[in-house]
Amino acid sequence: MTTLLKHLQHQVRARVLTGAGWLEGHFHLAQLHGLSQYLSRNAWYPLTEVVMEKVGALPFFQLSRAETVLVVIAPATRPPPSFSSGARPQDARFVLTHGAVDGVVQLPTRLRLSDFMDNSTGFIHLQHTAVRVWAEANAHSFDDVLLNPQRVVGVIETGQPTQIAAAVAS
């Protein structure tokens, strides 16, 4: 990578749930782009300094958006709140092929969750999440994640804390 190109980019370390399990690595974003915007625009993500649970350490890994289930947002790279006075928090469960995510999504006041999902084009920002992978014994709790709507099997408005969130707390 050239020196000029390095100055035009910043690295974002993130934990990612993929179709092949968890990995952690650095995304390389243009200076003025946020992670959500980057994830929504690219079909492939070049990552460096990657550690995959099932593979080990890799200096470089090209990750497919189609296999990216969710990206955990590190506290230092959280997007600013994107909700307006016309938004309302909605507790929801997002069922995945190999697990589920409970979290809070900000919806426009007069929009149902089903309509929101039908119109989603980019990754969905969820807050206060509990991520459960069926093959793992424990759920994971994260403050912020970006969820790929293309990997969601179905969604349920929960309206209250769910069983997965309770399992994380215990």
Structure explained in plain terms:
The protein has 170 residues and is of the alpha+beta class. The protein folds into two domains: 73 residues, SH3 type barrels (Roll); 93 residues, SH3 type barrels. Helices cover 15% and strands 51% of the residues. The chain has a ten-stranded antiparallel sheet, with helices on both faces. The longest helix has 7 residues. It starts with a helix and ends with a helix.
In short:
This protein is α+β, with helices and mostly antiparallel strands and 170 residues long.
List keywords for this structure.
alpha+beta; 170 residues; globular; SH3 type barrels; ten-stranded antiparallel β-sheet; disordered C terminus; 51% strand
The strand order across the widest sheet is 4-3-2-1-5-9-8-7-6-10
Structural Rg: 16 Å
Uncertain runs = 161-170
Count of helix runs: 4
CATH class of the largest domain: Mainly Beta
Sequence of secondary-structure elements: HEEHEEEEEHEEEH
Distance between the termini: 46 Å
Question: Strand percentage, roughly?
Answer: over 45%
Number of strand segments: 10
Label the CATH architecture of the largest domain.
Roll
CATH topology-level fold name of the largest domain? SH3 type barrels
What proportion of the residues is helical, as a percent range?
Answer: 10-25%
Topology readout:
Elements: H1 3-7, E1 9-18, E2 21-30, H2 35-41, E3 44-52, E4 56-64, E5 68-72, E6 87-96, E7 99-108, H3 113-119, E8 124-133, E9 140-147, E10 152-157, H4 163-169
Antiparallel strand pairs: 1-2, 1-5, 2-3, 3-4, 5-9, 6-7, 6-10, 7-8, 8-9
